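Side project, low priority. Logging it here so it doesn't get lost.
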Amino acid sequence: MKIDISTTNILARMQQQGSANQLAIFRILLGIQILYASSSMLLDLLLVVKGTSIPTIFPDFFNAFVASIDVPYLQIVTIALSVFLIFGLFTRYILPLLFVSFLLLFSFWYSRFDAPVQWLYIWFPLLILCFSRSEDCYSLDNLIGLSRKSLPSKNAYRWPIEVVSGWFAYIYFAAGLAKILPIVKGINWLDGGTSQQIIYDRFLDSVLYFIFRQPFFDYATNSWIFASLSIGSLIIELLCVLIFFTNRFNYLIIFLVMSMHFFLFLTGVPAFMQTALILSICLLPPQLFTRTKT
């Protein structure tokens, strides 16, 4: 299979025609995820526990201020704005407000809980939507005539999708590099010790324990199995860099990444799969969402 990188790289794809339906579906799913995440009772728990005290882009005094307004005020605002985003009402105006409220809310979350799932996956795509025409389809704005009157450019619905695809690639490729750099850290990762510790520690909280009630083998030994799992996850993450050069392998990448997250879910590492699945909507070809040319 011959691949012409000059026509399939991400910059070239950003100039091509896209689908208003695809962009709108992504907007709706992202809004649903923000609504789900910002409704979490974990935010109430984080107000009364010490947490992990992870530094964020904001100074400590600002994080303390955010914590003081976080629950219920900032949380309620984020929930309300996410509902507006889902239904596509006043979309152009609520998106910047939602971006700010989401960034503050989940910066606080990350400062207390060392798992930046929502923050990492969502903040940049939400920023990109602020500059897109995601309200042109499947929205109340379009229904009641509040959407933009100007004709969209050829790539108006494509460039936001491709930028989010690039964000998807960045997340996983950077995660792969972080596992092997510096080299000493990479050796420790590839020997399977980290994977073994995660699966061993989380077994009693895992879906596998709930179903089978016993491990498949001795998780305290058989280190070669965990080394294989570690190498496999590293290969999957590094393969995501292909998204920048071509979209020919997007289906394979989606399958591999979702398989990895499904396995992690079974072993007691939840939350990553649904956010990754939402972003992977942008890896699909626009033709799947377009009945007629948009």
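Brief comment: The longest helix spans residues 60-87.
Revisit when time allows.
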